[in-house]
Amino acid sequence: MAAVDAGRPSPPLSGATVCAFIMAAGSGERFMGLTEKQMEPLCGMPILLRSVMAFASLEEVGCLVVSAPEGRASEYRLAAEASCMGKGLTVVDGGATRQESVHKALERMSASLPDDAIAAIHDAVRPFADGPTIRRSLSDAATFGASCVCVPSKDTVKEAVGGFIARTVDRSAVWLAQTPQCFRFGLILGAHRAAAADGIKATDDAALAERMGVKVRVTPGTDSNIKITTRDDYGYAEYLLSSRKWE
Questions:
Q1: Are residues 241 and 42 in contact, defined by beta-carbon separation less than 8 angstroms?
Q2: Are 203 and 102 in contact (CB under 8 A)?
Q3: Residues 205, 181 contacting (CB under 8 angstroms)
Q4: Cβ neighbours of residue 110 under 8 Å, at least 6 residues apart?
Q5: pTM of the model
Q6: How far, in Å, are 4, 157, 177 from residue 59 at the CA level?
Q7: 141 in Cβ contact with 212 (< 8 Å)
Q8: By the 8 A CB rule, do 227 and 158 touch?
Q9: Regions of the chain short of the pLDDT cut 50
Q10: What does the pLDDT read at residue 16?
Q11: What pLDDT is stored for residue 26 in this prediction?
Q12: Burial readout 215-236 (b: 16 or more C-beta within 10 A, e: otherwise)
């Protein structure tokens, strides 16, 4: 694979291979549901399928990879096929952590995707990623090598130490990360390999690119692109969908 380098020119998005990686291997312990939260029906359709459709519906996306809980790949393939709109679908067993799941999915595709392909990595439990935002993130990744969908903080941000406020952070510089996070394929695979070799753990893929010296482009997102983690999040998602507030 090519070295991690966001400085070299990228091919235009129209000529790039784009593969969406939908991370759906989590157990969802905080959700307290009868099944994994990504399989919970949301207004009649499992959350996972809504996320798959968001990417499959875009002509720029050529293939999809779904990371499933270990041993559940066949079940998740059967479910995801209903939403992939005839595009190539690969379903892989996930790992013990999200980072491991992403790495395994990237390795699975390493023989079939070129280094300059665009990998769009997305949380399955963010069913409201809209087409314009996804396209902006893909375009930013093609131009700059790496992009992260973010929204600016609306609240005053405090840094606390030992249970007390240590300082107030300049809110104008604070952005809250969402997904998709999009990268040249060779870049993000190299970043994951380096993290695995060094025993580094991170909470998102952009952080692994950052530690390799990559400048990750901020792609402005939307407040409706929520991550469904708790039952309260699920209730808000039902409201967004039923009222069509997210469109």
A1: yes
A2: no
A3: yes
A4: 1, 189
A5: 0.91
A6: 28, 39, 25
A7: no
A8: no
A9: 1-10
A10: 73
A11: 79
A12: ebbbbebeebbbbbeeeebbee
Measured CA to CA, the distance from residue 184 to residue 18 in angstroms comes to 9
Yes or no: say if 201 and 131 are a contact pair by the CB < 8 Å rule: no
Give the model's pLDDT for residue 128. 96
Residue whose entry in the numeric block shows the structure tokens 């039923």: 242
Which residues share a beta bridge with 41? 46
Q: In one letter, which amino acid is 246? A: W
Query: Could you give the CA distance from residue 218 to residue 150 in angstroms, rounded to a whole number?
Result: 6
Report the pLDDT value the prediction gives residue 177, as an integer from 0 to 100. Answer: 98
Contacts of 221 (CB under 8 A, 6+ apart): 133, 149, 150, 151, 178
DSSP letters, the chain, are: -----SSS----GGGS-EEEEEE-----GGG--SS-GGGSEETTEEHHHHHHHHHHTSTT--EEEEEE-TT-HHHHHHHHTTTSTTSEEEEEE--SSHHHHHHHHHHHTTTTS-TTSEEEEEETT-TT--HHHHHHHHHHHHHHSEEEEEEE--S-EEEEETTEEEEEE-GGG-EEEEEEEEEEHHHHHHHHHHHHHHT---SSHHHHHHTTT--PEEEE--TT-----SHHHHHHHHHHHHHTTT-
- What local confidence, expressed as pLDDT, does residue 156 receive? 97
pLDDT of residue 13: 65
Alpha-carbon gap, residue 89 to 71, rounded angstroms = 17
